[in-house]
Structures are given as structure tokens and as C-alpha cells.
Amino acid sequence: MELRCEGCAGCCVDWRPLDPAAAGSDRAGPRPPLDDVYGLAPLTRDEVARFVDDGLADALVPRLFQPAERDDSVRVDGVDLAAADGRPVFVVGLRKPPKPVAPIGTDEPRWLDACAFLDPTTLQCRIHDSDRYPRTCATYPGHNLELGAETECERVEAAGGGDRLLDEDPPADLPAPAFGPQALGASVFAYPDPADLDGVVARLRGGEATPDDRARFLGAAVGSRPGSLSVDRGRMAGARARARDADSWVGAAVREWTTRAGNDGDRVDRDGDERDRLVREIEDGAGAPGTPGWD
Description:
Layout: E1 2-3, H1 20-23, H2 45-53, E2 60-64, E3 73-76, E4 79-84, E5 87-94, E6 98-101, E7 110-113, H3 135-139, H4 142-147, H5 152-158, E8 165-167, E9 189-190, H6 200-205, H7 211-223, H8 233-244, H9 249-260, H10 272-282
Antiparallel strand pairs: 1-8, 2-5, 3-4, 4-5, 5-9, 6-7
Helix pairs in contact: 2-7, 7-8
Organism: Halorubrum coriense DSM 10284
Protein name: Zinc/iron-chelating domain-containing protein
């Protein structure tokens, strides 16, 4: 699998506002998510725990699902949620605030939802090749190629973004997919106390989740036992407390970008130098790790 990622960021950015027809949909499987975040990359339990322990829980967000036909479900805040044994199932991914980015060959920056760790100037991941880099990102689009499913690389190519997928052979050492029979407690989690989620589900659905709302799910994910619905209550409580107290450069940047952003797809009302200064001020100046540049 060989990719040309320079100047792309197709898998890190929601570019539906630029080309809705070409962007298609990232919805996998019969269970629609409650949110409309595009390209959410599910994390493993150990990855969630690492972010929480590193004080970066404010970079994470849970995703709940509507039930498919014949699914177990539980009703919270007037919403039917996919469930396992009466417990809402969820995944955890990276937040995507609006940022001033110019991906996939666009000639000027637009306000587009982008991964919290995407540098808007270099279009590189700030945690690439680090211990925090998610497995889902490192192996993309391996599972798509293995299943014969369309990739973001091909969507970018179809939208005039140049050659991106240079080798279509999936890696031989692909890990198990994030959604599968082995995923319960490892990358798909079950919240143990649905009665505690009154009001929380409504805020998640409306994109207005509080730090405590997100921390509830992060704690449950960290406390989960792979292959099981059981949750270690001590681990859950400790992780929830650490997640609730997180105050990293990511959380500060999400708040700043959200406050400053225009509507989805709007042109950024700043010249290149001014935009770069803004990125340095909001992200680099707040402690964001740099990017290495392209070889």
C-alpha cells in the first residue's frame, strides 16, 4: 500500500461542503451514528487510555448509534440507541473542529471540519509516527482495500486531487477491524449506566457535549474489559476524573477555532500570512507539536 498524502488531508477533513457528490459517505454498516462527524477514526481502549493519561482527553469524543433492525436498544432522552444487554454501545474518536484549511488541491483556505491534530498550514498530522498515532489512521485505507470498498484516496482523485492511491495492495499485517466480533470492550464499548445519561445524549446529538459528558464515556471505555460487557468501576472512575480535568492545547484550540469559524465551506477571510500567524498563535503557541515536513 503506497499513498501520496502531500497536500491532500482527504481522510482528515470533512470536505463534503466542497464536493458533496464526490465525498460520498463514511457511514459503515447498518447503524447510523447520532452525530454528523465525517470520517471519525475509532480508537482502541488502550489508545483512549493513553490520551487520557497524557492529559489529552479533550481531543476525544464519543459516538453513539441508532439501532439496526433486530438490534437490542435502549431509549435515552427520547432517542433509541443501539445497545448490548440494555447498555448503549459507543466508540471513541478524535474531535473535528472547524479549521482554515486548503486540502485536496483547493486554491484557497475554507472553513472545514478537520481532525484536531491536523496542522492547517502543512496539512500534516501533529502526532504522526508518535506513540499517540491511532492504529486506524496508521493502517488506512488497508481495510477498505481488503474489502474492495471505496477509499478517501479514490474520492480525492475523482474530485481532481491528482494521484493518491499508488499501490492498491493492502498490508499483510492488517490488525482486526475496529468493528467486528472481537471489538467489544476493545474498540466498541458499552456504557454500563444508561440511567445516568439523561440530558447527555441530547447534548451529544446536538453537538453541545460538555467535558463531563465526554468524560463519562471515556471513563467507561478505559474501564472496559476486551471481549466483555464488564467494566472495572475503579478504572472507569479514575479515567473519568482525569478526562474531565483535561485542559490541553487541543481543547483550547477547539474552542478558539469554533469561536472564529465561518459557516461550513466558507472562504477564510484572511490572507495566507495572516492565516499562518493565526495557526501559530492558536495551536503552535499553545503547545502543539510541530510537523516534520514532506520528504
